[in-house]
Structures are given as C-alpha cells and as structure tokens.
Amino acid sequence: MRRVHLFEFHDLSWFPHTWRKMLTDVLSFFTLTFRPFSQAVPKLKDALERLDCRTVVDLCSGSSGPLLQIQKQLEEKEAYPVRVILTDRFPNMDAFRRAALLSNGKISFVQTPVDATNVPASLNGFRTLFVAFHHFRPPLAKQILQDAVSKKEGIGVFEYTERSLDWVVPSLLTPLLVWIITPFLRPLTFSRVLWTYVLPVIPLVVFWDGIVSNFRTYSVEELKQLTLEIQDNGYSWEIGKIPSGQCQMTYLLGYPMKPSCGKDR
To answer: pLDDT tens across 205-235, in order?
Structure first.
C-alpha cells in the first residue's frame, strides 16, 4: 500500500480553533486512556540516557497527547525523571496549562507558535513527535530531521498509525468511539455536545483524519530513505517497529554520536 498524502482537517489554517481543540481533546483522551506509547518509553529513555539529556521538547503537541503518561512513566518506572516542554504551531493553551498543573510543574509549554521545521535554538533538548510526523510531506519531514541535526539535538518520532488493514478497518468505528467517550471529556460544554451529537462535525472529522493518518504514515523503509538524504555529520539513526497492542508502532531515533546535551538540558 503506497503512501497517499491527503489532507487532514486540523492541518488546515482555516479550520476553526474550537473544532481543532475538540479534536485534539479526543486524541489526547485516547492516548491517555489506552496508552499506546507505553512500549516506546524504554526506547526513548535509552536515547535520552545515551545523550545524558533530561529535557524533552515535544513538537506538534496538540492537547498534550501522551506526554503526561510518558513523563510519569519515565520518572516512576524507568527511574529517569525529565522535564517536558510542549510546543505546537497552533498552541492549545487550555490543554497545555492543564498538563502543566497535573504534572506539578514538570511539564511546561511555549505560548507562541513553534514551527517543527525550524525550532528556535533556545529550545534545547531531545525533540519528540508523537503521531505527528505523518502530517508532513517528505520535503518538510526531511527539514524536521535536518533542523534537529543542524542544531545538534536528538530527535524521536513515534507513530502508532500505519498503512495496513489492521489499522484502517478499526478506524471505520471512530465515530462511535467519539460518541462513547465524549461524556468523559472535560469540560463537557454545550458546544462540545452540539458539535458531537446534534451536528456531528467532530466524529466525522475524527473519522476522516484517522483514515488519512493511516495512509500518510511513513514505513520503516521510507524513514530510512529520508535519513539517507540528511547531511548528518556524525548522527546515529535507529528505525524499526515496536509491538503496541495488536499492532506495530513505527519509530525513528536520531542523535549525535558525540552528545552535547548534558544534565542541565
């Protein structure tokens, strides 16, 4: 199944902020409830430990996604506490503030938009993208990797979507899932009820974006090809798959052979 780069609604600049927030809230609830990235945390910890790095700069954070769970798992199960900085091109400030509060300050955030292809040099730390890399066409995806390399930062890409029937078929049930979980989302506003049940914009958008995400996801071979096109100047790349429930999570880790992160970063 070849990669097809169709559009996702919440990538579009005109997509209403209210709907984008509701959409990312659904995705965040899913990742916090089902914890699809639990198996990836040891891989992330190994990369951080290799660089002696204690700061994670998350790109394309949405509604903070799995970072609360990941930060907690790194600290409690992996004995490797880190601080996390959330960033996004369209920052969801309510979600970012909630994550900062729930983490007791171990998670912070950047209020201004951050471009994943050109991260400010002041944002030092290991960069992560969770279920976000597929949003970028190959030229921009390569820029994301090249920017990390040029600024001598490690980077980790983790995608639990993939181009396979194992994911595409269950995606057909996402509207039902949205209707089921919405009463558990907070705050449960009239607007959320309106756009979920009365006028089901959110279930339909989640359905479309979920299907498209699968078709957009890079394979292991495609990720390897991207790294071959990077001028890495002494970078180590690790690309593969990790079991995640009944499916496989694709991951990419890149870091300089000569670490420059240090404990204070």
So the answer is: 999 998 998 899 999 999 999 999 998 778 9
